[in-house]
Each structure stands twice: as structure tokens, then as C-alpha cells.
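R.M. (postdoc): so does anyone remember the format we settled on? I'll just put the C-alpha cells first.
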């Protein structure tokens, strides 16, 4: 698919055909493409938890959502045959930037203009979203509530120093996919957000 077409088609898909698993080669391409993301200092401080069996996916949803009857969003999202949880690893950046060519040996976090570990893991996540579209599948990036992060780590044996930046659900789109109400906001235009030469407005 043309790159511009991938971009045009990219949108979050929130319902999946539960009877169509993600082909293994597509799953592997998603993951390989994620690793093509840029990273500060080429730190690559990220990790990806891949959940595919019903038991693994159930465990994810149980750990990350409130008990009780699932709402419509959760019912549809639970049909996704593949979940990839991207984790950022801050310590990898502090270690990398303490190396001689960077020299931030004090590991002072105030040196970081923004948390590059989360930025880079977000970029890797976007590559997975785009790859899903390119492969004719759908995907959604969604958040893990902060109060559920400890349960997620405990369930899957994730060390405390890894932080889930969200989760990417992947699969063939289902019939019940609904557009997000947020889309009513409309996409902001270039003239609204781009400042050429000087901040205007
Ligand atoms: C950081 C981030 C967090 C998001 N969290 C959620 C979420 O928790 N649940 C959800 O359904 N969509 C989530 N989304 C998807 C946005 O709602 C979606 O990207 C936005 O409405 C624009 O729609 P589109 O991506 O289909 O173009 C998230 C997107 C981003 C980038």
C-alpha cells in the first residue's frame, strides 16, 4: 500500500472479528517494524509484551479493567485476537546517557526536556498501528489506567522499572466498530496548528 494511503486509512479500530487470528508473519512484522522506531541515543529502551492466547488476553483484561459486566467498548475490544503492550524503560536511557559520549553521569532526570523513554515507545507503537493498516488489519492504541499498572506487572511478571505506555489491540475489524465520539471534535487544520516563522495567534 502507498504510504499516503496507509496514513489516510489509519484510524483506531475498536471491534474485531474474533474468529480471524492475526497471521504469525503479520504479528512478527508488526514487532519488527516497531523496532525500526527512532530512539534517543539509540537507547531502544522499550519492551513489548505479546498476548495472544485466550488465557493471556483474559488475564490482561482482568488485570487492567474494573470487575463486573463489561461495557460496550470493553466487549468489542476483548474480541481482539492480539494485544501488544509496549513498555518504556527509563533506566535504559539514564544508563545510555551516562556513557562517555553523552556524559550525563549524574543521571539527573531534570536534564531530560521530556521523557524520551515514553516518546520513543510511543513512536514504536505508531509503527505498529501503521503496519496493521498496511497489512489490511485494524488496531487501536489505548491507555492502561494508572491504578491497574501494578496488577498488570504482577500478572505477567513485569519488573517495576518497566512502564506500560498503553496497549495496542490488533485484529481484523469486526462488524460493530464504532467511531469514537471524540472525532466530533474534527481534525485540526494546518493553519490552526502550524506557526510559520513566528508564533501567530
Ligand atoms: C495516547 C493515546 C491514548 C489513547 N487512549 C485511548 C483509550 O484509552 N481508549 C480508546 O478507545 N482510544 C484511545 N485513543 C485513541 C484516540 O481516541 C484516537 O486516536 C482519536 O480519537 C483520533 O481517532 P483516530 O485515531 O481513529 O484517527 C488513544 C490515543 C492515544 C494517542
Amino acid at each position: 500500500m502507498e504510504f499516503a494511503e496507509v496514513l489516510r486509512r489509519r484510524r483506531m479500530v475498536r471491534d474485531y472479528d474474533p474468529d480471524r487470528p492475526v497471521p504469525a508473519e503479520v504479528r512478527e512484522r508488526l514487532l519488527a517494524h516497531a523496532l525500526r522506531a527512532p530512539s534517543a541515543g539509540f537507547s531502544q529502551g522499550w519492551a513489548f509484551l505479546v498476548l495472544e492466547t485466550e488465557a493471556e488476553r483474559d488475564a490482561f483484561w482482568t488485570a487492567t479493567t474494573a470487575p463486573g459486566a463489561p461495557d460496550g467498548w470493553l466487549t468489542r475490544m476483548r474480541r481482539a485476537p492480539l494485544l501488544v503492550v509496549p513498555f518504556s524503560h527509563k533506566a535504559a536511557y539514564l544508563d545510555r546517557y551516562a556513557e562517555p559520549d553523552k556524559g550525563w553521569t549524574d543521571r539527573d532526570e531534570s536534564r531530560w526536556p521530556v521523557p524520551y523513554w515514553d516518546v520513543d515507545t510511543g513512536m514504536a507503537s505508531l509503527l505498529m498501528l501503521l503496519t496493521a493498516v498496511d497489512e489490511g488489519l485494524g488496531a487501536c492504541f489505548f491507555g492502561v489506567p494508572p491504578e491497574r499498572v501494578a496488577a498488570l506487572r504482577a500478572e505477567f511478571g513485569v519488573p517495576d522499572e518497566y512502564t506500560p505506555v498503553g496497549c495496542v489491540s490488533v485484529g481484523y475489524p469486526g462488524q460493530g466498530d464504532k467511531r469514537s465520539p471524540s472525532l466530533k471534535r474534527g481534525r485540526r487544520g494546518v493553519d490552526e496548528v502550524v506557526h510559520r516563522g513566528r508564533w501567530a495567534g
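R.M.: ...and that's the designed sequence above, right after the C-alpha cells. Also worth knowing: The chain has a mean pLDDT of 97. The longest strand covers residues 82-89.
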